[in-house]
Amino acid sequence: MTSRLEIPDGSDxxxxxxxxxxxxxxGRTGVVVAIGNHVVDLSVLAAAGTFxxxxxxxxxxxxxxxxxxxxxxxxxxxxxxxxxxxAGGDEPHRRNAVEAAxxxxxxxxxxxxxxxxxxxxxxxxxxxxxxxGRLFRPGSEPLLPNWRHLPVGYHGRSGTVVVDGxxxxxxxxxRLDPATGEPTYGPTRAxxxxxxxxxxxxxxxxxxxxxxxxxxxRHIFGLVLVNDWSAxxxxxxxxxxxxxxxxxxxxxxxxxxxxxxxxxxxxxxxAPPQDPEPLPYLRPRRRLAFDIRLEVEIVPAGSSTGTxxxxxxxxxxxWTMDQQLAHATSNGATTRPGDLFASGTVxxxxxxxxxxxxxxxxxxxRPLRLAxxxxxxxxxxxxxxxxxxxxxxxxxxxxxGSCRGxxxxxxxxx
Length: 414
Ligand code: CA
What we know:
2 domains, globular
């Protein structure tokens, strides 16, 4: 349409993507979509009458929650109008409307796109669950008896979910001193990342009424990258019998762009078979996964040279998002617009496809060598962790942007 809308080759944001975010620019904060190196300010388009199905004020906000609450038919209508407008011809009315709403990405600051009400973290990679079981409970069966029958998860801390780029303060807590076998309090010595994909729910269910597994996709607004930062020494000491607590709750980073399910539709693939077959409420007519490629890069403190420490894929997760959402509501619990459900660490079957340092270094026993010559068992202060995800390649690439955070030194307060 115009030269400003040319999409750079390999961009995460071609017109087939149109992910949603919340951006601050020129003293205002509102809902935007990404295209190429620009964002489109939806409140400007709404004011010009582009979206008759959307109530006034939906996009003039610092959260997508109102839009997400409108439900799938409205999401589809807005996406379709945006595609028509952005892909259409160069007629003056069309060009003027788009020009008025376009802002260069370099001029905006991305904010957390949703007010996260509840946050659940699953544990749905069979490779990750097996490896962690082996490392945390050596000598016993790595998968507990329930694991193949239900998507194991826990409720996390929604108030500490932060957006891409937010610094991560090294947490302190209780951890066992291996020399004495006694607990001490202090900065974690085993700070880790966890590479995950999260889904965000839109219109929710009624209390007491489970979401059926074949309806689950209607409730899912879109997907984000998730780094579920973890303090392994705190986690190992505290996690039995009730599960993760302070070793996980200090921070969780998400990417700023929520990629709509419709943008990911061409990249659905059959999910791997399940054995044994789950109970009927977890048995959809078709089990589909998302063929998303993922990688994690560590840029060490004081260095400009990053090292990609893992490359993996999302397609072979044992439990699908539809099964996770059906299970999470199977007791009648509700979801609301903006709830975050993370997949659990995404690990593949090979040593270079593992989604956290705990697995990559076998709990610190085999340090990783980075490109700058330094080694890592766990993260050091000043390290930056950058996660990326995408489907397809070239001009058809649908990307998630980045999910990054830099580790800051621990608080000096006791
Ligand atoms: Ca996790």
